[in-house]
Structure formats: C-alpha cells, structure tokens
Design goal:
The protein is mostly beta strands. Helix content is about 10%, strand content about 40%. The protein has one domain: Capsule assembly protein Wzi (Porin, Beta Barrel), CATH 2.40.160.
Length: about 550
C-alpha cells in the first residue's frame, strides 16, 4: 500500500517547483488556530485555511533553534511544550480535544518534542501522553429510558465505534501525537505522519476532518503553499491512512460481532482561489473508508476518490446490485466555500456534504437535502480604537438532522455504516464534527483579542442525535424527549513572556439528558467543565 501511494506522490511532485514552509499542528493550543486565522483577516496570509495543519511564515516564534551545522543544512529545534487539562463534574462534555477522550473527572494531555531539518527533509517528533480519571456515570443504555430509545441507540452503536465510556477504569495512553517526517519539494511535500488534519472552512465543526479524535497514521501528498496558475491558485492534499477501533464491546452487539480489523481511509481535498474574485476559496473534499481485509489491491481501491460520484456508475446489469455496496466501503463528499473580505476584516463560509452517493445527477438536483449535512459561519473583527486589539464576533451553525425526505426514503446516519461497522471514527471518536451523529449545533462567540491575548465568551446549543429523537417523537405521538445542551463558556487567554495560558469555564445545562424525560421537580443535569492550557516556547 505505502509503495503505491509514494509512487503516485512522486509522479505528481515531479511537475512542481522548489520551495518550503512550516506547519503548525491543529489544536496546538486552544487559541493557536484562531490566532493564525485572525492574522489573515488582518491581511497577513493568503492560504485558504481549508487544509490544516496550516503552513505559515513566522511560525518559528514557537520553536527554538538548538543546533545549526556550519553550512546551515542541518538544524535542530526544540518544539513548544503544551500541557492541557480539563475537568467535567457530572458527565462527559467537549469536542475538538484530540487524543483526549469523552470522560467525567480530571483529564490531562502533555506533549512536546524536537524537530530536525536536513535539506528538504524535516522530522517532527511530538508524542502525546493522555491520562483521564474516567469516572463512572450513567450511560444511555443504563438510563431510565424507554426500551424503544435503548433499542434505537443500541442499533446505532452496532454500526459505529462510539462508546459512551472508555472502559471502567482510569485511561492512560501514549501515542505519536503530532509527529511526522516530511520531504519538502517546492510548494509540495510527501509526509508520513500521525498528525491531526482539519478539512473545510469551519472553526467549531467541519464535516470530514477535525481534531475531535486522536491523530492517525497516514501518508499524505500536500501543497505547502498556494500554487499559482493563469486562472488562480490551487491547494490540495491526498491521504491514505489507518483508522483503529477501541475494541470496546457491549451487550448491544448481540450475535453479530464487529470485525477486529483496521480501516483504510483515503481522501482528497482540493481548493481553488479564482484570480477574478479576491478572497474567494472553493473546495471539494471526498473520503472513503473500508476494512483493510475487504479493500482489494487495485488503483481504484487505494484511490477511490477518483471514481464517479453517482451510484449509477456502479450498477450491475444482473439484478441491479450495487458494485459500491459489494466493495463494502463508505463515502463522504462535501463542497465548501470561504469568502475572505479583508477590507471589512470579515469572512463568511459554508460547507455542504452528502453521506454516501446520490443515485444520479437528477437525484441530487431533485432532493439535494437527502442525507445532507452542512456547516455555515460568519466572523468579523471590529476595531475599537480606545484600547489595543479588536472585538471578534462569530457565529456558526452545524446541521446533521435528517431532512423531510427521510419520511419516504430510508435515511443514512452520518458517520455510521452497516458494512463498515466501526464507522467514520478513530480510536472511538468521530473524525468529523464532534457533536455526534444526527446532531445540530448553534454557536456564538464574542471576544476581545490582541495577538495571543483573549477575553470573551461563547454560547452554544447542541441537540443530540435528532434522528433518534424524531423516531421516538413519532412513536409516542408527541412525548417530547429532545436532548439538548445549553453551554455558557467564559475564556481568558494571556501571553506572559515565553508562556501562553488559555483557560475556559463552561456551565452546561442538559435538558432531557440521554432522552430521559424528567419531571420539573427533578431538574436537568448540570455539568461544569474547566479547562487550563499552558504552552511554553523555549
């Protein structure tokens, strides 16, 4: 597998010119991605920010040079040390925290390392250590709920590796974290990596790739900076990787155990910036997952994203079976756009995606809402004049709930699959949006920002798995069981010399937690989440 991927990568690289840039890991610190993205609103960068890790000039401020050879070809750098801590008082809460897990109690992530560069080759060794108390709490299948809800939830767990709790004891893991070895050739690079990836324009959620789960082993071919052409600039990334399961099983598996096998993930992310429309970025993202033992050995098995996007292209004459189904793999595809309005110091972005193929073009045009999900957002900086910095306001909507077409057409639940039954996950967490399958989210942010400093708040509402809720609502003829979280978050981030601190305090009120209807005198479960992150730059 690796030999074929590297061969194709080298073939593509042979047409590119020479150059180099430096990457900043996704979610290095809670404020790091936002800091560099904000610099673009201020006119200091030209990349799309729809392929991350980001490659930016000036990232050297995070590293310290330890050694340089006499000719300058060999250098050694100390990478920043990051210590992230969080605490959940009542039940798991939180997304986009990488190798951390959904857990109650105290949890910590520690990372640091070194980087070396020898000519066009760079090596980043940044392992991560995670510890979580992983305290007991009532899981969905243990809650005082209807048998119908439990059955529906068990059915979901049977087609996705998404456990409520990661075992019954404390959790400790050491992984490769944000480590990689990269060959930089012009505006492109080939990398063997364990990094987190983020695809798409979203800031809180994205459909295909986020840092919600731990990083995964993959080979990638990526542009390191926009490639100029007569019609505009292009950015791209092609990946082939390995997704792992947790091995955590339960009674919901019944007599049909899941395969004890890793999944092959392949994907492509293409972005185009038309030369005629300043600040507009258009993207196409597509990914496939398949169990390694069922994937085949052809070019189309390693790079299925080059195949047709409609099911009719895979139809079999004898009986109308579906070749794509016979391959037992799952596709996700999305289109995205981001419009950067630098004069206004603002941006607007959208991502629209489909889980699985449309039957044909007519099917897509007539019912574009079937099995769709979307992310829509807007951000703006306001100069305030009386003090340094700006006010940054942002709003983002994420929607995974099935549309009305699910009444007459069998719906697909995003990230779950009846054949690839560990779903679109890595080590028990979603690769895409962390708000869980079938959920919706609305997020509003307002912050004062000045370089790395930030003071502000966020209000967020998440309705959990409305696909399951809709089924229960219809069955019980109006018995309202929508599980929604309302979260109020205060933030304070501060740069002090070589240290950067970020802190959050979140109060979460969960209505009908786990779809359990409670009497008014019982009250809704409440959770306090506290987060403290520290980054030290040598």
């Amino acid at each position: 597998m690796k030999t074929k991927i590297v061969y194709v990568s080298l073939l593509l690289l042979s047409i590119l010119s020479i150059g180099q840039a430096q990457t900043v890991p996704v979610g290095l610190l809670d404020n790091s991605d936002d800091y560099y993205r904000r610099q673009q609103l201020l006119g200091n960068d030209t990349s799309s920010f729809m392929i991350r890790p980001i490659k930016v000039n000036g990232a050297e401020e995070l590293n310290r040079e330890l050694f340089r050879s006499w000719n300058g070809k060999l250098t050694l750098h100390a990478l920043p040390i990051v210590w992230q801590q969080q605490y959940n008082s009542d039940h798991p809460y939180g997304i986009n925290d990488g190798a951390m897990i959904p857990a109650r109690g105290y949890q910590t992530l520690f990372s640091g390392g070194v980087a070396a560069r020898l000519g066009p080759v760079t090596i980043n060794l940044r392992p991560e250590f995670v510890f979580a108390e992983n305290k007991d709490f009532t899981e969905v299948l243990e809650a005082k709920n209807s048998e119908f809800i439990k059955h529906q939830y068990a059915s979901l767990l049977n087609v996705i590796d998404l456990p409520d709790r990661f075992g019954t004891r404390s959790y400790t893991k050491v992984n490769w974290g944000q480590s990689n070895i990269r060959l930089n050739l012009g505006p492109a690079s080939i990398a063997l990596s364990n990094e987190n990836l983020w695809w798409g324009p979203g800031t809180r959620n994205s459909l295909l790739m986020t840092n919600n789960a731990a990083g995964f082993e993959h080979i990638s071919l990526s542009t390191m900076r926009p490639i100029q052409s007569p019609i505009g600039s292009f950015e791209a990334q092609i990946i082939g990787g390995k997704l792992e399961n947790t091995g955590i099983t339960g009674q919901y598996l019944g007599n049909r155990p899941k395969l004890n096998d890793w999944r092959y993930l392949s994907g492509i992310n293409l972005n185009y910036q038309p030369k005629w429309i300043s600040g507009l970025y258009l993207g196409l993202q597509r990914s496939f997952i398949v169990y390694q033992s069922q994937m085949g050995n052809g070019f189309g098995d390693y790079f299925p994203f080059f195949t047709s996007v409609t099911k009719n292209s895979f139809s079999v004459e004898d009986g109308g079976a579906d070749k794509e189904d016979l391959k037992q793999r799952d596709q996700i595809i999305s289109l995205s756009a981001r419009w950067l309005l630098q004069d206004a110091k603002a941006e607007i972005y959208v991502e629209y995606g489909r889980e699985d193929h449309s039957k044909d073009l007519r099917d897509f045009v007539v019912e574009p809402e079937h099995d769709r999900a979307y992310v829509f957002g807007f951000r703006k900086l306001f100069d305030i004049g009386v003090i340094e910095g700006q006010i940054q306001a942002g709003i983002e909507f994420t929607h995974f709930e099935n549309s009305i077409s699910s009444v007459v057409r069998a719906p697909v639940i995003w990230y779950a699959h009846t054949q690839v039954r560990d779903g679109y996950t890595n080590k028990g967490q979603l690769l895409g949006a962390g708000i869980s399958p079938g959920s919706n989210a609305q997020t509003f942010d307002l912050n004062w920002v000045n370089a790395w400093d930030r003071i502000g708040f966020r209000v967020e509402r998440i309705t959990h798995n409305n696909v399951l809720y809709d089924r229960e609502f219809v069955r019980n003829k109006g018995d309202k069981r929508e599980w929604s979280d309302i979260a109020f978050t205060g933030r304070y981030d501060k740069e002090l010399g070589r240290f950067i601190f970020n802190s959050q305090f979140t109060y979460v009120k969960s209505t009908n937690y786990q779809w359990v209807v409670r009497e008014s005198n019982e009250g809704s479960p409440k959770n306090i989440q506290m987060r403290l992150g520290i980054m030290y730059r040598w």
